[in-house]
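Need tokens for this chain, all 376 residues.
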Amino acid sequence: MTKLKVPYFEPWITKEDKKKIMKVLDQRWLTNGPMLQKFEDGFRKSIGTKFAIGVGSATQALHLAMRAINVGEGDEVIVPTFTFAATANAAIYNGAKPIFVDVDKETFTIVPEKIQNSINKKTKAIIVVHYGGQACDMDKILKISKENNIPIIEDCAHTPGSRYKKKNCGSMGLIGCFSFYATKTITTAEGGMITTNDKNIEKQIRLLRSQAMNIQAIEREKKAKWKYDIVDLGYNYRLDEIRSALGLSQLQRINKIISKRSKIASKYNKHFKNIEGIETPTVKKDRNHTYHLYTIKINKKYSLTRDELFEKLSKKGIGTSVQYYPLHLMSYYKNKFKIKEKEYQVSNKLKDEILCLPIFPTMSNKQIDYVMKQIQ
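Here are the structure tokens for all 376 residues:
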């Protein structure tokens, strides 16, 4: 393997991040303590919701979101096929069937008309995935949700800081689910967050994330009581104090992180706009783009195919990724569900065209120039 001159991603961990982590290690409570509360409070304010609940990953967030609205056996959940496995898997964890629908050829986000055509009596929820740092077409989607009385779960793994008509991703649907994986806009290494304005949902999710114990350990100590009850089937889905400290530190500079990503994207855009066969990310006028991903499309006019370009960049020491290979073509889902591949014409084409280029806050001008030089 060629040594990477430009990795696909590199987490930005500062001295201040490390100080916050070391400070929290002096606490008695390393789980469900004051740092988690501060991170949750800061995050809910940044998104503009009443509540935020920290969990161990976005997968856990999606799982709990569906548990909270009673998704279960025999139900169907509408999911874009152009997404990561976790989006669909969370529905399956709850006994439901994911119903895959196609995406828009420009934004790679779920098509509202495809949602409408997939709704039936079994439909219990709609999961929308805001792709790459840009929101879905939420006005149309929310209209469909209201008319059919079906809740929206926003998969916001790519979009802290992203807005649609001045509304933050994670504040428009019933529940928002965020990821803090190492490649994401802000990171806790592994981690996630759930946002909502619904008090009952918030209460249910807090219960389920800690084994459904009706009284947590820190509360039992304060009240000098030992007895607790298990009132539901719960999970160990907590976000600990160490990761919360890192998350809060990163959240405090999220605008700087997004600004750095946007500047890199601007340089890429300027370079690629004059290269025949390379299509840069489409940004809709009624929303911003925070560039969690910088995804180009390679069409037939370019001198290389996508796979050939992938191999060339790899040999030159440049890390890239393909996000995503559609779920309806993955072995597990193909074998488990009866899927008609022809129904996903856009995703079937995108899988051979897209390539995600390196974009991360600490990327140097030398690295940016090197990537651009290899794509002429």
